[in-house]
Design a protein that fits this description.
The chain contains 17 helices and two strands. By secondary structure, it is mainly α. It has a single domain, classed as Farnesyl Diphosphate Synthase (Orthogonal Bundle). The protein has a two-stranded antiparallel ribbon. Helix 8 runs antiparallel to helix 9 and helix 9 runs antiparallel to helix 10. The chain starts with a helix and ends in a 6-residue tail after the last helix.
Length: 332
Amino acid sequence: MSRSEKNKDSVFQLNKLLEVTLKKVDQEIIYRLDKSIPLINDIGIHLINASGKRIRPLLTLAMATQLNDKSKNPILLAAAVEFIHTATLLHDDVVDQSNLRRGKKTANIIWGNEFSVLAGDFLFAQSFELMVETGSIRALSSLASASCKITQGEFQQMQIANKPNTTKVEYFDVIGKKTAELFGASCESGIIVANGSLAQQKAAYDYGFNLGLAFQIVDDLMDFNSQSNKMGKNLGDDFKLGKTTLPIILAWEKSNTSEKKFWDRTLRELKQYTGDFDEALNIFKKYNIFEDCKLTAQEFVSKSKISLEQLPNTQFKEHLIGLASESTQRSK
């Protein structure tokens, strides 16, 4: 991305506006990890350094700051949100047997599954300490509920794996819990500690939830995108594992008998041969699956932007609208 393109990027602009506060979040994270045993600290720092744009804590801070909350509470919540997200990444990589995350070796590859799972458990526990310190039961309730639903979503994702005939309703329920709930709670909790109205709290949650759905759909598409190396992951990982994602579901709905036999063999039975991934891409192209997925993501983006009408007209709101718009165009 060129400098001029970067200056137009809403995440970049939000990072600039919140630069001082974000540094305090980083300091809080480092302080909490330093208090733990050295190995947990090493694993936590490794994952956080590989976590990309830190969208979720950024959303928490942006929501609170536009209501002029300059207390420490949004900082504590943003750190908690990052710990929750990082914990889920640790657990996801163990379940998925992943070996790369954003171009770096995953923690389970470096330290092993046992240490990775325990480190994730520690980060979950640490996030609740941070939430309690805000003194806001409502914020604690929001993020605690999201944490429970993330685990439910992970269970449900495993249950629909290798089932290309999964319905869209089932899929949206899974990604709603697995991904979108934390986006929603990250936004909602920021408004809660800033003493926003109930209408503003709901608006923030709706913005984050719908944004999270769009993000996950785009992530699903990236597994079949030749530019996925920008994410630091292997192309076709989801396909090789038989994961049921929106491109697969839409392709199954449109496939003829012969093509459905292909999906049954490659995904349900996991009998995959050289050329199968390219054949999957050919079926997607035949039925315009990528375009359909992008349209679905854009529908959720539109809903997220409409919900922001309840919030004040600030530069933060402008960049939150921009972030939603740009979410379907990202390549990492």
